[in-house]
Design goal:
Number of strands of chain A: 11
Number of helices of chain A: 14
Strand content of chain A: 5-15%
CATH superfamily of one domain in chain A: Bacterial extracellular solute-binding protein, family 7
Oligomer: homodimer
Helix content of chain A: 40-55%
Largest interface: A-B, 80 and 79 residues
CATH architecture of one domain in chain A: 3-Layer(aba) Sandwich
Order of helices and strands of chain A: HEHEHHEHHEEHEHEHEHEEHHEHH
Strand order of the largest sheet of chain A: 7-6-8-5-9-11
């Protein structure tokens, strides 16, 4: 009998240890951003904290910012290769590698933030994003919207298409290609050198993000014309997850991770809305002569045409990209009328 | 020795049972809505499901809809009294009981959905809501936004203030008080009788919600003038929690509950954005002669003046209500310029 009780005790200890100490999953996440780049880094930190709290410590996500891994534009490769389990970044950084990833950040003249979230979660957008990223063995989820990005800071007023001819502007990516078709001399310059380049007239204009992130750069001190947005109406960041890592997680922790991601994304959109409002008030107070302008109709029409041409060229030989862009286009057609009837007409009558 | 092993076994069984079977908390939630009232009931169900999934079954929230408890407008009392642990409802239903609860749903000419979430989470709104609800021993959280609610369905076009004189309109609550000051004969009619009342000219107009919820009511078939919104630019639902129940939950489950609530609220905003877009397309297709109109400037100005007068009267003897409304007003002053620079000007140039 002594032996029986002893065995029972041993069995009990073994079995209970399985329950008493749930396995902790330590994951590593690489971000495109440095440790102080609000609100982008906040979204990554918020997600990691939510995942840990909601899983009662079973998910521990260590964040390596760009300062650590030194490869801000290598996130997709590092998550794909398993060097990192997760990433926080923006989809359009991979357009050189895989053009199909482009439309999941934002497209010129595309969806606004609520429209785009509605497309992701109710209009087939998320499924299309998974289809594109499955080719890289990576899962991809919306990771926070900046809302409308501004059209950029210009030292001189832009009244006509002529004013754009030969204008030296830092505007990377797809928007830069459009500007180039309008005669702009598009350049790329490292962020740390942008202010000096603008001040010394090495460039005449530049595009950055919006008030919340522009304010620290100080462009408003030397380029008083702030043009409204057209090229990134709702830039959505992305959380990437290595597919094998995801599959190995217990179902419960998969659900926690997905919920933490969805919540952190929405949270960033709202946080940045507040930060933009606050930063704009500060800028304006300090530099009351900043002029908010919209590009004239001829310029906008030329941008729209260049955008359509570029999209047509890109999609002609790429059915998957066409599928994604057609889906966005169809969704805009459905949703935009509602945006105009609701938010647009409400705001129109309630200028403060 | 036999006794020792036996005791050790008993201790092991007892201790391990604490870990092996985490306590399940069964909570009951009452909703103002019936079981099919999308998207409102969906937000309640989504929250309950998230809470259960994220807590690995430790939180089980049973939902009683209005069909069961028969007290759609008794949610605050039932949660306060402990009959229910949680509620899903709208704050402005309690304005008769406690006027301070009014502004947390939406105010005429107030904040839009992203502006209001930014106010709740970054502008002190949530703290003010807790301050108001603490008097009822209840915690209150944002529970899903309908976005802009439409101004209502009218059988005849409204061109001037004269057209409003004696007009019989179903428009309850604070907006109804404003309309009454403009000469409208304000009535309240049970939802089930509204269509008939409109069809038989017992009323000339009515306010409901927006396309997603109006479509089932069929008003568009008999009242072709659909006026844009002014009175509820972003009606936010609320999740209520009995304070004692909340305090008894382990900290981990409190965090799960709060996260599930925040996520379900955002999710509803996006779901309803999609539903509105879809429903509007359907309505318009079936009844292409529906006319979307905005009230003329003289009417809007009169509404704004009546709103200001009413707010002044309500706040003159109520410092807490004044504190809440002043906070919203200050936040609009800060945030609205950004809304105009970003979403408004973007949409203006991108009519589809």
């Amino acid at each position: 009998m002594k032996r029986t009780w002893m065995i029972l005790f041993m069995v009990c200890i073994t079995v209970s240890s399985l329950f008493a100490a749930p396995r902790v999953y330590k994951l590593k996440m690489a971000t495109t951003w440095g440790p102080t780049l609000s609100p982008l880094i906040d979204a990554a930190q918020n997600m990691a904290q939510l995942a840990e709290e909601l899983s009662q410590g079973q998910l521990k996500i260590q964040i390596d910012t760009a300062n650590k891994h030194k490869a801000p534009l290598g996130i997709l490769d590092m998550v794909k290769g398993g060097q990192y389990d997760l990433g926080h970044t923006a989809s359009y950084y991979w357009k050189g590698k895989d053009i199909n990833t482009l439309p999941f950040t934002s497209m010129p003249f595309g969806l606004t933030a609520p429209e785009q979230y509605a497309w992701f979660y109710h209009g087939g957008g998320l499924e299309l994003m998974q289809k594109v990223y499955a080719r890289h063995n990576v899962l991809s989820f919306p990771g926070g919207s900046t809302g409308v990005q501004m059209g950029g800071w210009f030292r001189k007023e832009i009244n006509s298409l002529d004013d754009l001819q030969g204008l030296k502007m830092r505007i990377p990516g797809f928007a830069g290609e459009i500007m180039a078709r309008l005669g702009v001399q598009v350049t790329n310059i490292a962020p740390g050198e942008l202010y000096m380049a603008l001040e010394t007239n090495a460039i005449d204009a530049l595009e950055w993000v919006g008030p919340s992130m522009d304010i620290k750069m100080g462009f408003h001190k030397i380029a008083p014309f702030y043009y409204t947005g057209w090229h990134e109406p709702a830039s959505e960041m992305q959380f990437l997850i290595n597919q094998r890592v995801y599959k190995k997680l217990p179902e419960h922790l998969q659900k926690v991770l997905i919920a933490a991601i969805r919540l952190a994304a929405y949270d960033m959109y709202i946080q940045n809305y507040d930060m933009n409002a606050e930063a704009w008030q500060e800028m304006k107070k300090e530099y009351p002569n900043i002029k908010v302008e919209t590009f004239s109709k001829p310029i906008m029409d030329a941008m729209k045409k260049a955008n359509q041409d570029l999209v047509r060229e890109m999609t002609s030989k790429n059915p998957l990209l066409k599928e994604v862009l057609d889906s966005q286009k169809a969704y805009i057609k459905k949703v935009r009328e509602w945006s105009m009837m609701s938010d647009y007409l409400y705001l129109k009558d309630n200028l403060q």
